[in-house]
Design brief:
- The chain has two domains: 76 residues, no CATH class; 139 residues, Immunoglobulin-like.
- The protein is 30% helix and 35% strand.
- The longest helix has 35 residues.
- The strands form two sheets. Strands 1, 2, 3, 4, 5, 8, 9, 10 and 11 form a nine-stranded mixed β-sheet that branches. It has a two-stranded antiparallel sheet with strand order 6-7.
- The protein is of the alpha+beta class.
- Helix 1 packs across helix 2.
């Protein structure tokens, strides 16, 4: 009943607006026409016609208003909430030239341990769960589907390195909507060798969440002796 009352009130106010508009147009015409046609008189059917026209216009204006509201709601529903990721390079990214254990002689280079330090920003209005990682390393090659592999220590060519980074990523990264996951450490164990005598390497890191949203950035990693 309350809804019908609101509808009736809106209809009446719309009807009065249309009626006043039409009546104003007729009144203006009636004022100036006698100046040129002295015997002119307003036909009796015109007020009735104005009322009928106003009642026809009023529901149509309500229909227009309703359609506009429906289009707004539909447009909002057609824009699903999504995450929008961005990788920000931080300091302290490094790599270690791995070697075979001392028990395996002669000692030789076996690959590298790479740890990238980044912050990941989510500018979207939906939380992101990052579960997939990819690497492209200059002069080394691509690793389209590589998994984080945190270590507590690594055999280097010249010494044993203690990593001791308990906060390193082990599997996934949670980034809330419109928030920043800061100073994230993402470690990788790679069997590929770093370029000879290179003190640093350039890596393109790509991350992807469970809904397919992704981000990439180039990061510089310095060799740790």
């Amino acid at each position: 009943m309350r809804m019908f009352g609101r509808y009736l009130w809106t209809l009446i106010t719309t009807w009065w607006g249309a009626a006043f508009l039409l009546a104003g147009a007729v009144s203006t015409s009636v004022t100036f026409i006698p100046l040129y046609k002295l015997r002119f008189s307003l036909p009796r059917w015109i007020p009735g016609a104005i009322s009928i026209a106003a009642w026809l216009v009023a529901p149509y204006r309500l229909y227009q208003r309703q359609q506009a509201q429906i289009e707004v709601v539909t447009a909002n529903q057609q824009q699903p909430r999504r995450a929008s990721l961005k990788i920000i390079e931080e300091q302290d990214s490094y790599f270690i030239r791995r070697s075979t254990p001392e028990s395996q002689m002669p000692k030789r280079e076996a690959g590298m341990y790479l740890e990238l330090s980044v912050s990941i920003e989510n500018k979207g209005d939906r939380a992101a769960t990052i579960t997939a990682y990819g690497l492209q390393i200059e002069c080394v090659g691509g690793f389209p589907d590589v998994r984080p592999s945190p270590q507590t220590w690594v055999w280097g060519l010249r010494s044993q390195h203690s990593i001791g980074n308990s906060s390193a990523v082990r599997s996934y990264i949670e980034v809330p909507a419109e928030r920043l996951a800061s100073n994230v450490k993402i470690p990788f164990m790679l069997d590929s060798l770093a370029p000879e005598e290179a003190g640093q390497i350039r890596c393109e890191l790509t991350v992807r969440d469970t809904e397919g949203n992704s981000a990439s950035a180039w990061i510089t990693a310095v060799e740790r002796g």
